[in-house]
Amino acid sequence: MSQFVKLNPEQLKELREVNPMMMSYNVEFAEVTGGTFWKAYTPGQIAGTEEFHVTPTSEGIAAMYKDLMQVYAPIDLYSEKLRSLAKEFGPVWVRVSGTWATKTYYDFDGTTGGKAPEGYLNVLTKEQWIGVLDFVKAIGAKLIVSVANCPGLHSAEEPWHPAEAEKLFSLSKEYGVPINAAEFANEPNMMEDTGFPKGYTPEHYRRDQDLFFGWLRANYPDCLCVGPSTTGGDNVTFGKGGDGKSGGVEQLVNSCGCADLMEGTKEPLDVFSYHYYNGISERLASVMPAGHWQAEEANSEPYLATALNFARTYAPMRDKYCPGGEMWVTESGDAGGGGDTWASTYLDVLRTLNELGGFASITNGVIFHNTLASSDYGFLAREVFDPRPNYFAVLLWNRLMGSTVYDSGEAIREGAHVFAHSRKDGKDGVVYLIINNSLTEATTVELPKEAQRYTLAGENGKVRSTVMTLNDKPLVLGEGNALPEMKPVIQEAGCVELAPGTCTFLVM
């Protein structure tokens, strides 16, 4: 059914102010060091013309990884193209973490010869870390990390100690690019899969997080303590669920909830964090079918509601364990397992912009998109750094949407996901974001006055296109990797039809 939206900017009620760096991103530790990461989809799989299927083996999920992963060289953080495109976002947080961070040895004196010591899986060189620091400085960002917590550092019964963390923090400080925030390990609720010491329990985690945050406050007091960065569990639906199951990774590995990791801890959080993925990608769908969404569902109300349900679930936990603090989604994406086949297409823009608008309407914090330039969910294509549709979508968000959030006055429904913010340019007025997630019906919007209109769509009307258009003009890099002009069209007062499957910013 087609929808009608009447905009009343003069009657908007202010909800909150949100962090101006709300849109941020991850650079995985695996990218920095080089190593295995998710094998890229084929062009046919991305277009939806070629089926992606993996048959589970009797040897379990680990045996499947050989067909799902490939080895990549370290990311070139000195690339002028990468730096230029990243800087266009404006000030952001850069999170260097991931499961690899938990098991990485910091070889800053060059003694390992590139071979990880016993109990570690990866090696970070001094040159690689300075590359991270140079990148963060060059784009004017702030840096958040997580630290090692693996058998090479200590046993479960032996308390965590800062021998490795000190290397990372002291070098960063000495280099003039201090670490601004830190989490204790990554996704600690999946202890077996994360790489913690054998026999590690939530009790051990609570002990060690307190030790880390205590050490941090004593030695690097300006660094924010962020946690617990859990993923799945806590009665949130990861994927479609069904049969009383959440559809998440807890079906495959032993996991615990946020309360198990936080209840009784002595060192308070400065920021509360969790991870959100809409589900499981095609790469892992054969072993977690309840966690996977089909492409035909990626515009649906249940699918788009997932991110908002996560935020509503974790907001009370934030209030309990970090009262008055911000809530950060320190990993966010369409699907765990490197992203769905359509993650690099326009179809995922509907989810991305809905997540940003919905999160800001619920709470204040930062969303770290996974990733800047890795796998299929990256803003930029790996190695070549060509922008994907999501890159241009969040670029427009950062350029147009201010930090004051208003109640749009419109209930979220198919065809009309309406969000309202102040203008980013500081001028009086308001910016509306209207997502018409119906792929069959247009949405009619009544404008009380003239507006600047930016309408995003898949090229040639195809939602799975790898090229997005702005007001019917393709968004692609020009000569010398120059960004395309991203200019609005003037929309006169009165009624305007927003085509199916489009996202529109209206600046008044």
Report the total helices: 12
> What CATH architecture of the largest domain would you give?
Alpha-Beta Barrel
Count of beta strands: 24
- Strand fraction equals 15-25%
What average pLDDT do the residues reach?
93
Instruction: Using the alpha-carbon principal axes, give the shape.
Output: globular
CATH-defined superfamily of the largest domain: Glycosidases
Helix/strand layout:
Blueprint: E1 3-6, E2 13-17, E3 23-26, H1 29-33, E4 35-38, H2 43-47, H3 61-68, E5 69-72, H4 80-87, E6 93-96, E7 104-107, E8 122-125, H5 126-139, E9 142-146, H6 163-175, E10 181-183, H7 191-194, H8 202-219, E11 224-231, H9 258-262, E12 271-277, H10 301-321, E13 326-333, H11 347-362, E14 365-369, H12 389-400, E15 401-407, E16 417-423, E17 431-436, E18 443-447, E19 451-458, E20 468-470, E21 473-474, E22 489-491, E23 494-498, E24 502-507
Parallel strand pairs: 1-18, 3-6, 3-14, 6-9, 7-8, 9-10, 10-11, 11-12, 12-13, 13-14
Antiparallel strand pairs: 2-15, 4-5, 15-16, 16-17, 17-24, 18-23, 19-20, 19-22, 19-24, 20-21
Question: What does this protein look like?
Answer:
The protein has 2 domains: 114 residues, Immunoglobulin-like; 384 residues, Glycosidases (TIM Barrel). The chain contains 12 helices and 24 strands. Strands 2, 15, 16, 17, 19, 20, 21, 22 and 24 form a 9-stranded antiparallel β-sheet that branches. Helix 10 runs parallel beside helix 11 and helix 11 packs parallel to helix 12. It is globular, with a radius of gyration of 22 Å.
